[in-house]
Amino acid sequence: MSRKRAPKKQINTEGWLTTWADLMNLLLCFFVLLYAFSTMDAVKFQQIVFSMAKAFGGNANVITSGGNLGPVPVNSNPGVEIETKDRQPGKVNLEVQKGETQKVYNQVKEFVQKNNLEAKITVREDIKGVVIELQEKILFDSGRSDIKPESLPLLTKISQLLSVFNNEIVVEGHTDNVPINRGYFQSNWELSADRAVKVVRFLVENKGVSPERITAVGAGEFRPIASNATPEGRQKNRRVNILIVTKSEGEK
């Protein structure tokens, strides 16, 4: 009597696929979480996708909600930045802002020269725009914030100049570092702020400058343009600046 042969066990050679699929799902979830918790630069993200697609022999185009962005430029030299379309408008805007600052500066200088105001007004370019600088002795008595009556025609002239522009205007009050010894103000901060406010109120209430585009700032003694160690330096620091803004805060 012959023995029955035991049936051969079937070896499942595809079992590893289940483990592989689970691993891929976990990796996918991991990268999705990384993406969700991060703010990615669009250009860098596209470059990563391009590199991965190239490595796996796929298409390097990237699809977004706005459509196909096309091939992504890859920088073969990591020490040199590549130019992209996203960055070009910023460069153009910077050139436009420089041109606007120069244009405003030229107009202000021409106005000052035409009206023979060189002895009373200093004009210079600033990182935020164009500054019209007035020394303290022209507008105020020492330690006071009331505008001198004889300086009102000068402020009237300046208001005519400001009406030419639609730019934001910032009036800044500045002092030297000598502590104020009058009872009207507790510190140079209050003095500088009140002087700036008095100039702003005159321009708004008497000369029609829009209050929506003008601001008063008191800087006290903390933004000197000369040394406070000498009388000449302290005199330069006691001033009022009227800034015609041509650059926003994010573009300094």
From TrEMBL:
Coiled coil region boundaries: none
The entry's keywords: Cell membrane, Membrane, Transmembrane, Transmembrane helix
InterPro entries recorded: Bact_OuterMem_StrucFunc, MotB-like_N_dom, OmpA-like, OmpA-like_sf
Primary location: membrane
Domain OmpA-like: 127-248
Pfam families per UniProt: MotB_plug, OmpA
Keyword flag Cell membrane: yes
Entry keyword annotation includes DNA-binding: no
Record's bilayer topology term: Single-pass membrane protein
Stored CDD domains: OmpA_C-like
Location of this chain's protein in the cell: Cell membrane
GO cellular component, one term: plasma membrane
Family: Belongs to the MotB family.
Name of the featured protein: Motility protein B
Source species of the chain: Caloramator mitchellensis
Taxonomic lineage from the root: Bacteria, Bacillati, Bacillota, Clostridia, Eubacteriales
